[in-house]
Amino acid sequence: MLSSSQNAVQPNVDRLLSRCFSVLLLLVLAICFFPAPSSAQENVTLDDAVRQLAERVAAIPNLRGPVRLQFLQDPDFAADTGKDWEDSFRKEIEKRRVTISGDSSANLLRVGLAETPTQLVLSAGLRVSDKEEVRLVTFPRSAFHAANTPVSPVRIEKQLVYRSVERILDAASLGSASGGGLLLLTYRNADLSLLRLDANSELKEVIPLTAPGPYLSRDPHAELLVHLADVSIFLPGRICQLNASAPADIKCRAAKFSWRSPTVATPACDVGGWRLEAEGTDWTTTDLLQVVPEDTARKGSAALLSDFPGPILGINGGEGPASALVVTRNLRTGNHEVYRITLACGN
């Protein structure tokens, strides 16, 4: 079994610097991904942080030509901060001889302001010489305002459980009635197969789906649902069903349905639940898993992030209420990978 564990809160910011540039995700880049601030940061203000960020952007190697600014921020948080910090950043970056342009051909510089339960995070990113450059500044949230809503300490634990050269469309946990393990739906040359993994994530069985009906379009989308030993495969305009103990007996029918709702994980220390989301609209860039409180009253008060080596293609519930399965495509290797995500209690 291949595995690696990560927390959403880690001191090593450098590891994240070459990733995570989906436009809508940058505004929450690195939420709960940083250590507690040092005493030297206690007196940092938002204006100070804006100046520091401008300095770090201007110092990016090989940064030439004009840049086009895009500011990203949660609307609820924007009501607290206003837009003055955006004007300040424009002035500070121009002071450092970086030209700002409204031309659509200019290099896009994305600047985001986000909040965590303990910190504010300013982030800036752009592509220079075919490389994504990211600069971050964090400072205590108490320097701006106190948290609105108390949030239980929760962290993300991530484990790589399977990788394959085959395209993985979705993953689901098999219950004890089926002996446990995982079920993966794969796609190659217009053919679908189910891979059955044991409790150690070792390949146990390959089940070709050869019955009339289980086919996909050029841009496939499919989802798995497992209940006890019964397996349902949702395809565009069609549902196929089988039993894990008799996989050859597959039946497909035309059907209308709604695709899966966002997965919610519920750690023991927070019964309100956390919703797992990803942008997932650009399959050519890396992605972030966003884990946000499900309770409407707590939205915007906290979030957790975990970065992935490529776009997130699917999120499904795991074997327990606090776990989930995430399917991604590693842009560096081209492999498809399945991760087990667990929301654990404690910082």
How would you describe the overall organization of this protein?
With 347 residues, this protein is mainly β. It folds into 2 domains: 10-147, Rossmann fold (3-Layer(aba) Sandwich), CATH 3.40.50; 148-347, no CATH class. It has helices spanning 46-58, 75-81, 84-95, and strands at 67-73, 107-115, 119-128, 131-140, 154-164, 167-173, 182-188, 191-197, 203-209, 223-227, 230-235, 238-243, 246-254, 263-265, 274-277, 287-293, 304-308, 312-317, 323-329, 336-345. The strands form 5 sheets. A 4-stranded mixed β-sheet has the order 1-2-3-4. It has a 4-stranded antiparallel β-sheet with strand order 5-20-19-18, with no helix packed on it. Helix 1 (46-58) runs parallel beside helix 3. It is elongated, with a radius of gyration of 22 Å.
